């Protein structure tokens, strides 16, 4: 990944350009999402990540529609929820997401979790929607290697993105390497460990060394590892701070120190136990 500025992108396997830094809107209620999204777009963000499960697709649709930046300049991701999985169910759920988002296509659509007995049929639905031109890129979320191998064995298209819980306490380097080998772009959710990063002594030290906030250190680490990241915030100052990471670089030695914090600690559910 070549890191330039906030509007920089990474090329997915099908040639689609995906902004490598975006705004996550998990747990952002509809009455707060407009201000958050407008603050992000005003500052230069062009990637917004939502999901049906977040119950704010309609708010996001209104926020984007009411901003001066055109829809085609904004990379929108959404995800099909667990109770909507299956071939026909996914097609219907996708249509509902489009209505709420007030758009006729998505830039990226993901299978939210690998629901046993469902996710391969769900993936077939995503392939159909992709082939119909209704989605620019398709991928998965929370898929471990064996889930990816199932999809690759039964499907026609290799997932273009795998969005995973990723932070200094959960690196899963073997999975990153597997994804890289198969041209699957790795993406982070919960990169700030829901605030847990602020208690890590090494990150406090690096914050002082680089004169950057702990959040900025972690988000820069994400990008330097080639991981697309979507930190969530509703506060304008935090939204701007999270994106002010393009005027410094973490040394290789310090990158390895952050890598070494990995202890396989999850904040969210284990994908095999969802």
Give an overview in words.
It holds the Pfam family Aldo_ket_red. One of its GO terms (molecular function) is oxidoreductase activity, acting on the CH-OH group of donors, NAD or NADP as acceptor. Keywords: NADP, Oxidoreductase. With 274 residues, this protein is of the alpha/beta class. An eight-stranded parallel β-sheet has the order 3-4-5-6-7-8-9-10. A two-stranded antiparallel ribbon has the order 1-2. Helix 1 crosses helix 2, helix 2 runs parallel beside helix 3 and helix 7 crosses helix 8.
Task: Give a brief rundown of this model.
The protein is of the alpha/beta class and 274 residues long.
Approximate helicity band: 25-40%
- Fill in the CATH topology: TIM Barrel
Series of H and E elements: EEEHEHEHEHEHEHEHHEHH
Shape: globular
Overall structural domain count: 1
Query: What's the β-strand tally?
Result: 10
Largest sheet: spatial strand order = 3-4-5-6-7-8-9-10
Strand content: 15-25%
Average per-residue pLDDT, rounded, comes to: 97
What integer value in Å does the Rg equal?
18 Å
H/I helix tally: 10
Organism: Marinilabilia salmonicolor
Domain NADP-dependent oxidoreductase: 27-261
Family: Belongs to the aldo/keto reductase family.
Keywords: NADP, Oxidoreductase
């Amino acid at each position: 990944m070549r890191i330039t500025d906030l509007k920089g992108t990474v090329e997915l396997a099908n040639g689609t350009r995906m902004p490598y830094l975006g705004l996550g809107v998990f747990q952002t209620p509809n009455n707060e999402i407009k201000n958050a999204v407008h603050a992000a777009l005003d500052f230069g963000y062009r990637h917004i990540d939502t999901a049906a499960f977040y119950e704010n697709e309609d708010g996001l649709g209104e926020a984007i529609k009411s901003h001066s930046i055109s829809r085609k300049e904004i990379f929108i991701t959404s995800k099909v929820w667990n109770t909507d999985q299956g071939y026909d169910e996914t097609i219907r759920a996708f249509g509902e997401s489009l209505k709420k988002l007030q758009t006729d296509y998505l830039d990226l659509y993901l299978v939210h979790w690998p629901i046993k007995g469902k996710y391969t049929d769900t993936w077939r639905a995503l392939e159909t929607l992709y082939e119909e031109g209704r989605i620019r890129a398709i991928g998965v979320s929370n898929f471990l290697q064996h889930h990816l191998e199932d999809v690759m064995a039964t499907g026609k298209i290799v997932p273009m993105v795998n969005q995973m819980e990723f932070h200094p306490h959960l690196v899963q380097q073997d999975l990153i390497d597997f994804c890289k080998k198969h041209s699957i772009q790795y993406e982070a959710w919960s990169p700030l460990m829901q605030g847990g990063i602020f208690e890590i002594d090494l990150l406090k030290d690096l914050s002082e060394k680089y004169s950057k906030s702990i959040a900025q250190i972690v988000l820069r680490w994400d990008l330097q590892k080639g991981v697309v990241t979507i930190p969530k915030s509703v506060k304008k100052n935090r939204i701007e701070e999270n994106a002010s990471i393009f005027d410094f670089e973490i040394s290789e030695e310090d990158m390895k120190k952050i890598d070494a914090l990995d202890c396989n600690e999850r904040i969210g559910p284990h994908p095999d136990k969802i």
